[in-house]
Amino acid sequence: MQSKAQIDQVLRQKCEAKEIPGVVAVAATGSEVIYQGAFGKRDLSKDDPMTADSVFWIASMTKAITCAAGMQLVEQGKLSLDEPIGKLLPDLASPQVLEGFDAKGEPKLRPAKNPITLRHLMTHTAGYCYDVWNADMGKYQDKTGTPNIFSCLNAALKGPIMSDPGTRWEYGINIDFVGKAVEAASGQRLDAYLRDYMFAPLGMNDTGFKITDSQRQRLVGMHARGEDGSLASIPFELEQNPEFHMGGGGLYSTAADYIKFTQMILNKGKGNGNQLLKPETVALMGQNHIGDLTIGKMPTMAPMYTNDVDLYPDMVKKWGLSFLINTAKTPEGRSPGSLAWAGLANTYFWIDPARNVAGVILMQLLPFVDAKCLEAFAGFERGIYAGLDAGSGQRAA
Predict the structure, then answer these.
(1) Interatomic CA distance for residues 149 and 162, integer angstroms
(2) Which CATH code is given to the segment(s) 2-74+184-395?
(3) Which residues pair with 27 in a beta bridge?
(4) What is the residue extent of each domain of the chain?
(5) Which residues pair with 161 in a beta bridge?
(6) Which positions ≥6 away from 222 have C-beta within 8 Å?
(7) Contact at 8 Å (CB) between 360 and 348?
(8) Core-most of 9, 13, 34, 210, by most CB within 10 Å?
(9) Contacts of 4 (CB under 8 A, 6+ apart)
(10) Tens digits of per-residue pLDDT, 43-85?
């Protein structure tokens, strides 16, 4: 029981000290939940305590789910990892690379040297970026009136790429195109496809792009960290009637739902009694798909939304379909070859196949990679591995 008490203490202390507003954390093996805790408040401007079934915007934790859906269609031969995706998505048939701006501030574009593939999109090597980490994109949007991706307008997907496909890793709007590919290959809108082939089979009944009435009762408020470290509640909600569903960041979910997705990955594609992916597909998703390319630092261009992102700066990091892969053991105890990612409002998950354990920790504040949130995450993860190492992992719940 030691590790549960230890984790509870770390998370409770962070909330009581108002270092974070509130948090829900869940960890599981392939077969059972071994830790669950909820602390603090859903919204600092209200009295409601955080509960295990609280609903969060999980942002880029959406990406792994969208890619898993894409891989179902790859298995069926409806999508191909390496054919030019422009055959299916005409908007991607002749990508333009942004080479900078001329003396008048007009964008300088040239045709890309090679076609974009689904593998490029799933691995963030297609050349697409996010404006919060790329100043040129912000400049391009201002100059051309191209909307930001969070508008959920199709026009937001019309921008250029920043490098030739396959030549470098840059985090960006790639997975929104994977969502478009899922729609084109399946003939269903992304929300319907994910509901029918991912959420319903896994029993993820609290996950979706549209906030239901029942979820709204349990919705966690967004918060912003001020320069003095203080937290304030801020209005935030994704477009509820979007032109396109953001496969790269549009989902709302709960920790209990998301852990089911991670358990499906641990169980080689099986979850809730249903085989969603073949074991060999899940194995493929967990391998390095960027070759010699590496994941570097992502310096912020929008400090309100994100800090500089530099996870495990001393370690070589790779990318799968679509997960961050650590190549060495982390200080918290995560095995080499584990899978992970995060969401902009400080939501995080990891999946460690070698130790048969996964964890999800959800908070709701900006900017991303907040130091106090990372401390809470590290304390949670360390506690889970301490419990496994002590052999009490099975009894931690």
Answers:
(1) 16
(2) 3.40.710.10
(3) 35, 359
(4) 2-74+184-395, 75-183
(5) 97
(6) 57, 233, 234, 235, 236, 345, 364, 365, 366
(7) yes
(8) 34
(9) 35, 37, 383, 387, 396, 397
(10) 999 999 999 999 999 999 999 999 999 999 999 999 999 999 9
Burial of residue 17 (number of CB atoms within 10 Å: 0-12, 13-18, 19+): exposed
Q: What φ, ψ does residue 176 adopt, rounded to 5°?
A: -65, -35
Look up the pTM and report it.
0.97
Task: Show which residues are catalytic.
Answer: 60, 63, 171
Q: Which two tokens stand for residue 353?
A: 């196949």
DSSP letters for 355-366:
TTEEEEEE--EE
Contacts of 252 (CB under 8 A, 6+ apart): 55, 56, 57, 58, 207, 208, 209, 211, 215, 219, 238
- Cross-strand pairs, 318: 325
What is the residue type of 88?
L
Supply the pLDDT for residue 14: 98
pLDDT tens across 132-156, in order?
999 999 999 999 999 999 999 999 9
- Residue 302 has φ and ψ, to the nearest 5°, of -145, 75
Strand partners, 37: 25
Cβ neighbors of 192 (< 8 A, separation 6 or more) are none
What is the rounded radius of gyration, in angstroms, for the C-alpha atoms of the chain? 20
Identify which of 171, 123, 172, 111 has the alpha carbon closest to the alpha carbon of residue 310: 171
